[in-house]
Design a protein that fits this description.
By secondary structure, the protein is α/β, with parallel strands linked by helices. It folds into 3 domains: about 130 residues, 3-Layer(aba) Sandwich (Rossmann fold); about 190 residues, pyruvate-formate lyase- activating enzyme (Alpha-Beta Horseshoe); about 60 residues, OB fold (Dihydrolipoamide Acetyltransferase, E2P) (Beta Barrel). It contains 13 helices and 18 strands. The strands form 4 sheets. It has a 6-stranded parallel beta sheet with strand order 2-1-3-4-5-6, with helices on both faces. A 5-stranded mixed barrel has the order 14-15-16-18-17. Helix 8 packs parallel to helix 10 and helix 11 runs parallel beside helix 12. The longest helix is centred in the last third of the chain and has 24 residues. About 40% of the residues are buried. The C terminus is likely disordered.
């Protein structure tokens, strides 16, 4: 009873949390398996941002309960945001779940599983479900372990590093402050040491993660000569030998002050790709969302970043159908969406999240209206993404070779603008930055050939 499969829903923060849990479990003697059919223990790391995400995880857990009834020793656990949001109330729908662990207690999972295994080995019934969703001071410092490749596994060249957890922004539509708690930052020295260790292991690209990553350290470190703690951290990671690229997510427009904008011009390892959540292009809706910026300020940030890097790539988050959103409000969102020339966007239809201020608002937008507005933006995004990728055909892009693609016959990597590329290569190039001539493009993927002297023939 030591084979564990972790299924992750939601954002990159959840992916990082799952990896840290996997690393802790592997260090405790557990085996992490890729196929859920091979596991003795299955952990669902869940998301609560949208109701659909919760329902998907609940549906999966309900299905897995059938397996548990056939295999009494099978252990089923629910971790993360949905566990934090719903706690023991999940047992009303999922009475056979063994473990419910919230977002500040991931590091307790190995101990709880040890207890469940010991009970089983002693022939003692598991008994009541373990539920732990309490707050814990310093919990942000526990997401620090990484899974190292085992013999035969493909080399890893990029990694997520958690630098900050929680959120104090109180957007009226968002459940994250409830599921992740108040804003908490890790010590800068610890983060830098983690990045340095990753570089020594061959990691070439670091993505810094936080609920509001640009708020990093604002209460813990002094601004120095107008440089915020987050930019100070970027500078220190930039100085690490071996790290070739730096990205971060998810920021808030409020965090894009002059020092961060300028960093894109003076820190060459900082990739020219920005995820900049818009949510709405209507000032009236932004106020109702409790988003502390205007459409004008948002556009100023986009223009300032493009002034520093004209070929900057942008992605965003947009919510359509927020309570009270009129046709005029949506027209303003559409206008700003087109003007910002996004390469990628995550477009969501507003869904009520119980416990958020927006949940009590009247004037809910009908489902069919949300669906129409959602599709309008998706159509615009597809056309724009295809147009943007088409402009890259015939150009030479710097690509970090990440490994074999899903087919196993070609290789994949990403440009500095975060575009996925597929190409022929030699395994020895994994982890290297190579020039790639783009030969054709789809909406989201580039296809090309290596042009580095000697590489094309060797590949």
């Amino acid at each position: 009873m030591n084979r564990v499969h972790i299924k992750t829903y939601g954002c990159q923060m959840n992916e990082r949390d799952s990896e840290a849990v996997a690393a802790m479990l592997r260090a405790r003697g557990y085996r992490i398996v890729a196929d859920e059919a091979d596991c003795d223990i299955l952990l669902l790391n869940t998301c609560s941002v949208r109701d659909a995400a919760e329902q998907k995880a609940i549906g999966k857990a309900g299905y897995l309960q059938q397996r548990k009834r056939r295999q009494p020793d099978f252990v089923l656990g629910i971790l993360g945001c949905m566990a934090q949001n719903r706690g023991a109330s999940l047992l009303e729908q999922l009475p056979d779940v063994d473990l419910i662990v919230g977002t500040q207690k991931f590091h307790q999972v190995p101990g709880y599983l040890d207890n469940l295994r010991a009970a089983r080995d002693a022939g003692v019934p598991i008994g009541e479900t373990i539920v732990d969703i309490g707050e814990e001071a310093g919990s942000q410092n526990t997401i620090k372990d990484h899974v190292a490749p085992e013999a035969g596994e493909e080399r890893q060249v990029n990694a997520f590093v958690s630098i900050q957890q929680g959120c104090n922004m109180d957007c009226s539509f968002c459940i994250v402050p409830k599921t992740r708690g108040d804003e908490r930052s890790r010590p800068m020295d610890d983060i830098v040491a983690e990045c340095r260790t990753l570089a020594e292991r061959g990691i070439r690209e670091i993505t810094l993660l936080g609920q509001i990553v640009t708020s990093y350290g604002r209460r813990d470190y002094a601004h120095t000569d107008g440089v915020t703690p987050f930019v100070q951290l970027l500078e220190r990671v930039h100085a690490i030998e071996g790290i070739e690229r730096i990205r971060f997510t998810s920021p808030h427009p409020r965090g894009f002050r002059d020092d961060l904008v300028a960093a894109y011009g003076r820190l060459p390892k900082l990739c020219g790709y920005v995820h900049l959540p818009m949510q709405s292009g209507s000032d009236r809706i932004l106020r109702a969302m409790n988003r502390p910026y205007t459409r004008e300020r948002y556009r100023e940030i986009v223009d300032a970043l493009r002034a520093v890097q004209p070929e900057m790539y942008f992605s965003t988050d947009v919510i359509v159908g927020f309570p009270g959103e009129t046709e005029e409000d949506f027209a303003q969102t559409r206008e700003l969406f087109e003007a910002c020339n996004y390469d990628m966007a995550y477009i969501f239809k507003y869904s009520i999240r119980t416990g958020t201020p927006a949940a009590t608002l009247g004037d809910q937008v009908p489902g069919e209206v949300k669906e129409h507005r959602n599709q309008v933006l998706l159509d615009l995004l597809q056309k724009n993404s295809l147009r943007r990728t088409a402009t890259l055909v015939g150009t030479i892009e710097e690509v970090l070779v990440e490994g074999a693609d899903k087919s196993g016959t070609r290789y994949t990597g990403r440009t500095r603008g975060n575009r996925v590329c597929v190409f022929d290569a030699d395994p020895r190039l994994v982890g290297q930055l190579v020039p790639l001539k783009i030969e054709r493009a789809s909406v989201s993927t580039l296809y090309g050939a290596l042009v580095l002297s000697g590489v094309s023939d060797a590949a």
